[in-house]
Write a structure and sequence with these properties.
The chain contains eleven helices and five strands. It is α+β, with helices and mostly antiparallel strands and 360 residues long. The chain has a five-stranded mixed β-sheet.
């Protein structure tokens, strides 16, 4: 409240002055330029107040997505911006926020000295201020629903692409792996059948070779099935599944999993494949000597999240490029409304984090 007073005082003085001068000089056209400046000042102070609430109170108010028709002359475009409902909502907040700040400042100073005021009164006033800011500075319910629909549409498209890529991978693995092995088994057994009477020893050697190929085909099919959905994940949960991935990694991997209760199967499988792909990349490309996998469950007002974080001490420089492996993992996370971030400065360390909602 103390920090907000000088901001809102300056905003009130500038906005009232600019609008008064702009309206008063409209007859000589200078007012249009002044009102244009006033509009920019209103939007700037709205963004400043959102940042202030985020930094001081920890309340994230998303900026409304304001779009305009860009056709026509400069002044026509400006008029659309000036008459946009969000501009007047921002203006209303600034005009209300200053008298509210005049009330909050002495209350905040009293709260420093008088303990009951600081403990019981200030939080209530702050909550009311937050409600006012969300109502006027944040997106409307219609805008929120529109943005959610756009996110869901994009998420669905990325999910379809990820599923198609997964289908092609399975088809390729079957064609290049198990199918070739089984064809070799069939050919070997056919040759052994023709040699069974004339050359039993050669037929036995062919049967032994076919037997080896059959076992390799079974192994490849088992690996393929594990790649679709590993049995250990369904039977014992994410902790055991991630530990098995870490055990197969050629570099030491520390695993810490605290997830209780178990999340939905889609969340577990997404987390598993993100960790598996990331550990593969660490082993092949990162030049790291150790890695760490942390997974935990966070309670949020909007719903629980499963957070997975993979850290390595490699050379860094990883990024999500279009068509790359990390981009594919981000698409897979997006199918359940998850978000994946990559922080990988040159020289390392690399931190890959996935926030996966338990309900979507």
């Amino acid at each position: 409240m103390i920090a907000g007073f000088p901001v809102n005082l300056l905003a009130f003085i500038l906005i009232v002055t600019l609008f008064s001068v702009g309206i008063g000089t409209l007859v000589i056209w200078l007012g249009l330029a002044v009102l244009l400046l006033a509009t920019k000042v209103v939007y700037a102070f709205a963004a400043t107040n959102r940042a202030l609430l985020r930094g001081v109170l920890g309340v994230d108010i998303p900026a409304p997505k304001v779009s305009y028709d860009e056709s026509g002359s400069f002044w026509q475009r400006y008029l659309r911006r000036f008459t946009h409902p969000q501009m007047w909502r921002n203006l209303a907040y600034q005009l209300i926020a200053f008298p509210l700040a005049c009330f909050e400042l002495p209350l905040a100073l009293a709260g420093i000295v008088i303990l009951p005021v600081g403990l019981f009164v200030l939080p209530v006033v702050a909550s009311l201020h937050i409600l006012l800011a969300k109502w006027l500075l944040g997106p409307t319910e219609t805008e929120e629903l529109t943005q959610k629909a756009e996110r869901l549409q994009a998420s669905r498209a990325r999910g379809v692409d990820a599923a198609e890529a997964e289908r092609r991978r399975i088809e390729r693995d079957l064609h290049d792996g198990a199918q070739q092995r089984l064809v070799a088994v069939a050919m070997g057994l056919g040759r052994a059948k023709t040699k069974m009477d004339a050359d039993p020893d050669a037929a036995k050697a062919l049967i032994d070779e076919a037997h080896v190929d059959a076992k390799l085909a079974v192994s490849e099919l088992r690996d393929l099935a594990r790649g679709i959905y590993p049995a250990v994940l369904g039977d014992r949960g994410l902790d055991a599944a991630l530990s098995s991935l870490a055990a197969k990694c050629p570099i030491p991997v520390e695993v810490n999993v605290v997830i209780d209760p178990r999340p939905p199967a889609a969340v577990e499988s997404t987390a598993y494949f993100i960790v598996g792909e990331c550990l593969t990349n660490v082993a092949k490309h990162a030049g790291a000597t150790e890695a760490k996998v942390n997974a935990w469950r966070e309670e949020r007002p909007t719903g629980d999240l499963v957070v997975v974080e993979i850290t390595d001490n490699g050379t860094g420089g990883a990024s999500m490029r279009t068509g790359g492996g990390l981009s594919g993992l981000a698409d897979r996370a997006a199918t359940i409304d998850g978000v994946m971030t990559v922080v990988s400065p040159i020289g390392g360390p690399t931190v890959i984090r996935a926030d996966l909602p338990c309900a979507w």
